[in-house]
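[User] At your convenience, examine this fold.
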Amino acid sequence: MPKQIFHTIDGLRGIAAMAVATLHMRILFPSVWYPPGGYLAVDLFFCLSGFVLAEAYSDRLDAGFSLSVFIKKRILRLWPLYALGLTIGAFMAVLRIIFGYDSPASLISFIPALFYIPWNGPLGELYPLNFPAWSLLYELVVNILMVIIWPRLDNRMLVSLIGLSGAGLVVSAFLWGSLNAGFSWAGSGVATARVGFSFFLGILLWRMKPVPSHLSAWVPACMLVVALMVDNASISHAVTDLVNVMVVFPLIVWLGAITRPSGISLLFFESIGAASYALYTVHMPILRLLAMFISKVMHIPLGNVPYVLCLAILASLLTLAWFLNRLDVTFRARLDDFLKRGVRRPVADSASVLPG
């Protein structure tokens, strides 16, 4: 049975990745505008992931798909750009060590991180060299959990998992004042609730079998932009975050599943969707390198960097991410072929010495 391609969902992922990159730019460049709810893009990623993976793997999982093969496929999909982001972060750390800004200890986490093993950075970060990578760890863990429990994952269990995670989400939001947590060990409980709720909700939305509609694909896209921009001082972030994650984002994902962009809109959604993962994995270490160059080499205070330059940086990052995705697709295809040849060759060799 052919799998559907959800171009609107790809576009939503691209918009969310740009929101995260802009949010992190604000950390380094105070003049940049940023969406106050940009950190919630991660929750949308988790929901989209549950939906898309259910669509991509359901038939194979129903047929008893091997967990080891699934893990290999997911690591092959996620690891190359993830490793690139870490490597750029390590290069940044080396420069800071050379110029006396950091100690060699800042590089300790690099090797464990290459194997997705989290560390404990100065601020408790799981991945000090590229802190946005924390969500990829939780993504991989929940993906593996999905495969393990798939034979028993009926709608009743799905609703139970969503309900338990949702309760954790509500408690976390009011304890922390928002859902902006997860990159550190202290926020591991919040991160677990975030990924559990949104990922399994994505699977449930897929099982509801959305039917294509003539609604414009720009409707969910604009809804997402507005949701990430809302910052009402009279309403606590705990409340707005919960409304977005529990109500608005599921609606956006549903609308993304039933809408089909065409023409220029299709080209735009495909392009930003293709760039989204690369943008997410490499933007922070590259931004830190740029900030170091501007402040230490050009001697320009980061607070004086004009807004128009920040926009140019974001556009450049998006373009770079698009090219990196093209390279990643080619690299993964060749690596997959190499691994398949490596598996087949020993079988052929051993078969040749078996008794006739």
